[in-house]
Amino acid sequence: MSNEWLILGPAALYMMSMTLTPGPNNIMLTASGANFGFRRTLPHMWGILGGCFLLFTGIALGLGLLFERYPTIQAALRWIGSAYLLYLAWKIASSPPPNLKVREHSVPFTFWQAAAFQFANPKAWVMGLALMAGFLPENGQPVLNALLLAGFAEMVALPCIALWAAFGTAIGQWIKSDGAWRAFNITMGVLTAACVVLILR
């Protein structure tokens, strides 16, 4: 291994600190785990990882420069992302208390929905920009380096975001009354909506 790749240790610590802390993805994974269970939340988790992989790779190959050159694109994406996040917050807050019949007919976040959301997720952009600026090796093939670093980052992120889904699943087994379920879903919805402040500030 090249000495340049010795920075994978610090890169792993950086990704752990970013993916273990609260943000839109982790709040929604908690809500999904509670309402749908861990297994049905897996497509949501894999969508986050896949979307971030594409986003991080794109940043390394010049996507960030495109936003710097055309700031109107970034502004439009921020407003679209904010509107979509508010819609998701409303869906979470208005979700009925889950029961077997409701769960079977409810639809959790899909892989493609979660993947697409990463391109409007401010925390994903911050992670990708800092990751590629701070840890991408300068020598070697740029495309291969970007793919390897983005793939490594998502390997580190997987158990971190899985903890949030598992946390939500545990909460779902603990909450028993309909009133407690409504309070939980409203709280998750409000926290999701509060993330819009990160996008528009």
TrEMBL record:
Keywords from the UniProt entry: Cell membrane, Membrane, Transmembrane, Transmembrane helix
InterPro entries found in the cross-reference section: LeuE-type
Regions that span the bilayer: 43-67, 76-93, 113-136, 143-167, 179-200
Chief site of localization: membrane
Localization: Cell membrane
Membrane topology of this protein: Multi-pass membrane protein
The name this protein goes by in its record: LysE family translocator
Species per Swiss-Prot/TrEMBL record: Vreelandella neptunia
Taxon lineage: Bacteria, Pseudomonadati, Pseudomonadota, Gammaproteobacteria, Oceanospirillales
